[in-house]
Amino acid sequence: MIHRFSRLLQPAALLGFALITLAGLAGIEYSLNSHLRELQRGYRVDPNTWQTYSAEVRAIVFPDVVLMPLVGYAAALLLSPEPGKGDRAAVRRLARRKLSGDVLTQDELEFWARVEREVSDVENLR
Fold first, then answer.
1. Angle, nearest 10°, between helix axes 68-79 and 11-42?
2. What is the mean pLDDT of residues 51-79?
3. Whole-Å CA distances, 80 to 32, 70, 76, 91
4. What is the pLDDT of residues 13-40, one digit of tens each?
């Protein structure tokens, strides 16, 4: 069970959390700025009143726009099935076959070596 929670701290998962948060915050700010531009076309908007209104909207909308997708993403990471032994063995065979080839660039060589190492690390955890 501890291994499942370690998925949440992997770089890909952390990047996903960061992207969801940034997208949610950017969406809120974009919406507020669009609304401000619409208001300014016909009305004079007091900056202090706008700041108060913006803070209230952020407080109300933040849980729905940012926190709920983060919770959903974390649940999906935790509940997703782990690859079986056959899948790991197939990935290891593919990595070894790629590494035995002589037409790999340095980046590809590093990538397949990392794949083979990670598959071995996962099997050693069990």
1. 160
2. 92
3. 36, 15, 6, 19
4. 999 999 999 999 999 999 999 999 998 8
